[in-house]
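Example S7 (structure tokens).
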């Protein structure tokens, strides 16, 4: 599930200006790929994750959905703190960081888990306008 979703998220080059543009574009791409997805899902004390993928369209929802956080800027240390908060949520079955910054991929990639959740970092191929 996690790896298949990561492939979908990283498959296209996007023209973006803001993180909200990136969120809107990837929301559409994930839906077109046949996934049920909501934007800005509230995880309670853990915070608000940009995208929550709950399963495949037309199939029963996954027991635990996948949270997707999107970044176009920010320091790796700020991002990891945010993701660590999300990793405390019992409502998630995995986390993906989608970023336009290769430095984020270099600094945060290479790990399979974050907390108790499966974790992936992908370069989403954004092109800033």
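Recovered sequence:
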């Amino acid at each position: 599930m996690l790896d298949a979703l990561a492939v979908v998220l990283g498959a296209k080059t996007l023209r973006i200006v803001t993180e909200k543009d990136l969120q809107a574009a990837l929301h559409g791409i994930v839906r077109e790929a046949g996934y049920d997805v909501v934007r800005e899902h509230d995880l309670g004390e853990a915070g608000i994750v940009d995208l929550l993928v709950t399963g495949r369209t037309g199939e029963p929802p996954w027991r635990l959905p996948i949270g997707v956080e999107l970044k176009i800027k920010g320091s790796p240390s700020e991002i990891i703190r945010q993701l660590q908060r999300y990793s405390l949520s019992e409502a998630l079955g995995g986390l993906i960081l989608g970023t336009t910054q290769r430095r984020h991929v270099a600094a945060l990639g290479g790990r399979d888990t974050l907390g108790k959740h499966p974790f992936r970092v992908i370069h989403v191929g954004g092109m800033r306008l």
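Notes on this example. The mean pLDDT is 88.
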